[in-house]
Amino acid sequence: MRTLGGTTFRDCLVVANPAAGSIQDDTASRVATAVARSGALEGPLRLVRTEGPGHAAALAAGDPAELVVAIGGDGTVSEVTQVLAGTDRTLCALPAGSGNSTARALWGDRSCDEVTDLLRHGRTRTWRIDLLRLAELDAVSVLGTSTGFLAQVLADAAAYDGVLSGIDRYYAAAAGLLSDMPDSPTRVSVDGAVLSDGPTSSVAIGGGRHRARAFEFLPRSVLDDGLLDVSTIEHLTGEATERVAATIPTGDHLDLPGVTYARGREVVVERTDGHPLVAEHDGTVVDVGPRLTASVMPAALTVLTVLDRPRP
Ligand SMILES: Nc1ncnc2c1ncn2[C@@H]1O[C@H](COP(=O)(O)OP(=O)(O)OP(=O)(O)O)[C@@H](O)[C@H]1O
Asked: Which domains does the chain have, with CATH numbers?
């Protein structure tokens, strides 16, 4: 029997989001066929489609399948992760959304078709990765959480719905923000020590190295080191904004003035003026008060990744 990286699964649930940014009409059936032909399934495969927000989580909670394949973007993967966190069930995340940053952390630059081929040929293995627990939200995160710039980009991108498609909405929103960066009085503490305190444009905590697919906010992050990475960027204007914006795509911004980077088990972000933070996790904007606490959940999620992925 061929297996998915030496592992077989009793059964499989394929959850496809038909509204995800880059999904095609036949994506879900092609992925289901690939898993069925991998030889890694001992029992049945069930294919279901989501009908709206929250449905992917409900479907994963209502079906005990050992392997859950999520076809969609970061939002769909995050919903399934809420259910699979801390269990022995395995998540396989296919990049079929707009940003697909979580899938990028697992599969690199591979397309949905290329990952489907890996599944068909059993060229995958399981991997236990860390998650973030977000105390005030009573949620977990796989990709990461942020306040300021990234969250504001996601909030502003809604204005381009129906005008631009997919990731172009994020780029348009980001371009609009660069001339007026967030300027929030914010304190960030890592394991009880203050990392930064003052007017802040961005706080990113992860999780995944990339956000909005192309931006490497946390270039040193490792998904299974039992630690969270955090980077803060103080309030920027003019040329300083341009320098940071030009270097984030390659993760070369860390040595620029106003940028901090650290690692730890717990990160606390506080608005020191008492206003609510503008926050998101896994690419979805969330309502949170003036405080956000992220703590690491080591090895809390089993995922599929590339069989020959180099081990750091
Ligand atoms: N049938 C549906 N119709 C409309 N929206 C849906 C449906 N099923 C799920 N959704 C919602 O679609 C939204 C977007 O999903 P998702 O994040 O997976 O894709 P994306 O936004 O294209 O990708 P990314 O988050 O990677 O940029 C989520 O809020 C999800 O709850």
From this structure: 12-122 (3.40.50.10330), 136-298 (2.60.200.40)
In this prediction, residues 92-103 reach a mean pLDDT of: 96
pTM to 2 decimals? 0.95
Contact 10, 129 (CB under 8 A): no
Ligand 1: centre distance to CA 76 (Å): 6
CB 268, CB 92: distance < 8 Å: no
In 3D space, the residue among 311, 312, 308 whose CA is nearest the CA of residue 5 turns out to be: 308
Assign 268 to helix, strand or coil: strand
**14-40 pLDDT, tens per residue?**
999 999 999 999 999 999 999 999 989
Nearest alpha carbon, ligand 1 atom 17 = 75
State the Cα–Cα distance between residues 311 and 229, nearest whole angstrom: 18
ipTM over 0.85: yes
| 192 in contact with ligand 1, CB cutoff 6 A | no
Assess whether the C-beta atom of 232 lies below 6 angstroms from ligand 1.
Answer: no
From CA 75, how far away is CA 102, in angstroms rounded?
10
Burial class (CB in 10 A: 0-12, 13-18, 19+), 299: middle
- Ligand 1 geometric centre to CA of 258 (Å): 35
